[in-house]
Design a protein that fits this description.
59% helix, Rossmann fold, two-stranded parallel ribbon, 2 domains, 2 strands, 134 residues, globular, 8 helices, mainly alpha
Length: 134
């Protein structure tokens, strides 16, 4: 599948798309995430995604992510992300275009995502209850 994706990038002359198929260090990943305009979640329709929250959801609080079990427990569609139907490329494209054409919505999602992270998922918030037990 990687070969096909690379070929599509060439065929469609996508100058702003970079396919990275090797593991990145945390510092390399951070640099790449800071370079991008939009962070996408996982969209494959598989049983694991329906019962878990991908690590990436916490790393970038994806602005566009899947309507999936665990993710729907922490993110709210239209408030801190836009949710996409699983394995629905048309819905994904529509949501990306929605953000491209609505900077106010994008700003709202960013602000609310950062706020959610600080209130519920920062290291201090997660570790504090554990430290009280010690």
């Amino acid at each position: 599948m990687e070969k096909e994706v690379k070929q599509q990038i060439v065929d469609l002359d996508l100058k702003n798309v970079e396919l990275i198929s090797h593991e990145l260090s945390f510092s390399e990943l951070r640099v790449k995430m800071l370079e991008c305009h939009l962070s996408l979640g996982q969209f494959e329709d598989n049983p694991r995604l329906k019962r878990t929250i991908p690590h990436k959801a916490f790393e970038s609080l994806n602005m566009v992510t899947a309507k999936a079990g665990g993710i729907m427990e922490i993110l709210e569609d239209g408030e801190n992300c836009l949710m996409v139907n699983l394995a629905d490329s048309r819905d994904l494209a529509d949501k990306i275009l929605t953000l491209k054409n609505n900077s106010e919505l994008m700003t709202k999602l960013i602000i609310n995502g950062v706020d959610l992270f600080k209130k519920r998922f920062s290291i201090k918030i997660i570790v504090e209850p554990i430290m009280r037990l010690m």
